[in-house]
């Protein structure tokens, strides 16, 4: 049985938990998102966690970032990571409660954040809040769990008798069609979509056929995260448990 929202906060308040253990994946996510952030943007990094992404995005010329999270532990880690970054302000906010933030962001980043919101109904509520905070022409950059991508990958694994990869108890992956339709109904234009299919297929599909032992830092995974390799293989979003969607207001 899935745990409730309070437990999701407890989870993120645990000191030893990390937002992403697979650092090759984290770097690939950051590289993918960073390409889409123009210099000079005012950014909201929603659910910033330890600030790993925030740190990278803050080096883009003339950006200003509000990095927001509901967990004291995450914010403490983020403040250490972002020490001395004058263009970043950290804020404690629970997106499921009433909150006050600006309404003129150029970019809102949701990097594996929405998947922590339990149930589609609440995820829609949070998405509507994001829409409200973007300028006209502003963009919501989502790099989020995709049910469809997870299913693709599991279908591939099945061919080689590998068990399906479960979705963690505190995650609620998005259905691609439902998300895109909902955003369209609310007058948000999908301007870009892609994924990290090559990385997922190689590291979660191919490698485990030969080696069942998880090792996020292995040389194979490093090679698999190469952008040149992804460009060559052109797998795009197929088999990608995490997908990029960019919506414009
Ligand atoms: C998987 S982590 C992602 C962190 C960061 N974006 C990254 O990519 O590394 C999800 C983050 O969302 C935060 N979070 C979950 N629910 C939240 C809520 N209702 N309001 C604000 N932050 C929340 C968690 O505390 C956690 O830091």
Give the secondary structure arrangement, pairings included.
Elements (H helix, E strand, L loop, with lengths): L4 H9 L9 H12 L7 E5 L5 H6 L6 E6 L2 H10 L6 E5 L12 E7 L8 H14 E12 L1 H13 L16 H10 L3 E7 L1 H14 L8 H6 L2 H7 L8 E7 L1
Parallel strand pairs: 1-2, 1-4, 2-3, 4-5
Antiparallel strand pairs: 5-7, 6-7
Helix pairs in contact: 6-8
The structure holds S-adenosylmethionine.
Brief sketch in words of this structure:
The chain has helices at residues 5-13, 23-34, 52-57, 72-81, 120-133, 147-159, 176-185, 197-210, 219-224, 227-233, and strands at residues 42-46, 64-69, 88-92, 105-111, 134-145, 189-195, 242-248. With 249 residues, it is of the alpha/beta class.
């Amino acid at each position: 049985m899935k745990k409730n929202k309070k437990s999701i906060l407890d989870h993120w308040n645990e000191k030893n938990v990390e937002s992403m253990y697979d650092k090759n994946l984290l770097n690939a996510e950051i590289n993918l998102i960073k390409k889409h952030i123009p210099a000079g943007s005012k950014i909201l990094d929603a659910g910033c966690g330890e600030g790993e992404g925030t740190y990278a995005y803050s080096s883009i010329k003339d950006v200003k970032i509000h990095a927001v999270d509901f967990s004291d532990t995450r914010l403490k880690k983020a403040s250490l990571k972002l020490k001395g970054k004058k263009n970043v302000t950290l804020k404690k906010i629970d997106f499921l409660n009433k909150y006050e933030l600006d309404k003129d962001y150029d970019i809102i980043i949701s990097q594996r954040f929405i998947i922590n919101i339990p149930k589609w109904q609440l995820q829609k509520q949070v998405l509507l809040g994001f829409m409200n905070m973007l300028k006209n022409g502003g963009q919501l950059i989502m790099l989020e769990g995709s049910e469809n991508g997870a299913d693709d990958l599991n279908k591939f694994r099945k061919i080689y008798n590998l068990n399906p990869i479960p979705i963690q108890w505190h995650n609620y992956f998005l259905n691609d069609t439902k998300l895109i339709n909902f955003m369209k109904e609310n007058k948000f234009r999908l301007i870009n979509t892609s994924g990290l299919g090559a990385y997922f297929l190689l590291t979660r599909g191919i490698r485990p056929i030969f080696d069942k032992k998880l090792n996020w830092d292995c040389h194979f995974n490093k090679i698999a995260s190469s952008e040149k390799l992804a460009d060559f293989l052109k797998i795009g979003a197929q088999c990608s448990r995490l997908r990029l969607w960019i919506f414009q207001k």
